[in-house]
Amino acid sequence: MRRQILHVDMNHFYASVEQAYNPALRGIPMAVTGKASERHGIILAKSPEAKAMGVKTSEVIWQARQKCPNLVLVDAHFERYHTFSRLAQGIYLQYTDRVEPYGMDECWLDVTGSTRLFGDAERIATDLRRRIKKELGVTVSIGISDNKIFAKLGSDYKKPDAQTLMTRDNMVERVWPLPASDLLFVGPHTRQALTHFGIHTIGEIAQSDPDLLHHRFGINGYYLWRAANGLDATPVARYGEKPPPQSISCGTTFTQDLKTRDEVELCLLRLAETVEQRLIGEHFAATHLSLSLRDRNLEYTGGEVHLDYPTTNATSLLGPAMLIADRYRDPNTPLRAMTLSATHLVPAEQAVQSAVFSDIMRFDKREKVSRTMHSLRHRFGDKAAERASLATFSLAHLDAARATMPVNLFATLGRMKERDMVG
Could you give the residue numbers annotated as active site? Predict the structure, then answer.
């Protein structure tokens, strides 16, 4: 039986929720922002009226106000967004138990087994749009397909308050002309690599030699080719099931820019420690590592490396992370934010070592230390175990460091706001 998959995307989510709470915000250029005092003064979401004035998500507030002087700004209220997300998911669950959230504002639904009760997928989509609008006061766009990838493309195809059918029957005219970057998981680095091969659209991925894509991207190359041809067979998880994570990351916007290599290394160690603890907690090891850098000018760069060992250890993550930072960081431009991601995860108990015996012994000792620290912190709190390189730097050498460092790095580390990403 052909699957019937929906991807439901709540339009202008943060902005729509604020408008539902305060109808006076409807019909005007408005935007939801982070707190400027914590260096999160960027546009998180905007109304259609603000979008028409050129306001973009992720740009800083002063840039948005240059485009739209009468822009009304509203502080983010994340507890409201979580509430609306749960309410919407409660409605979805009245149609199927195959509800897989993708962030707060998006969900996949497999309604294959629900059609005898509620009609086909298009009828269910129409009913969902009506109910969400009536009961929650926000609108959704819904993509309809027989696979998750095309369903997500459909929800992005037409907004707001719309539904779009994307299938192998109409993919040549609807899917293939779309930019390659619209395909799920084609990020900036993959897009750049595809461009190098002269591939700019989803159709060009679909019509490429899959062996060529495999040669360049490994097993993910075959996945890209299958996704572009509508052959994705990934199931929609049952609600509450926790699918294996694709990556485990920690990202930080610093309260003060990082100017020196030592500052970058120290902050990367702190990020690596957090990733280490999450890897151990999830019982996974990383085989690849990626680092994303954002500088003072809000320009992004970064790269990815293959690790010698599948690892959970912060020290083993730090060295490769610094190689990426040294390669891509402009030493003359201070850094504003970094995100460290452990990727290509494997179950920790299945991790296979491939180096010489002496390296394995040293590696195993590191892993045991990491697990011991994780156990101590789990039992007695995060401060129960601390790496000497961080503890002595922030305590014993506090005065000396303040005299030599151009920024108060201790305040930076103490007040850094982490973005937890396990996905």
Answer: 106
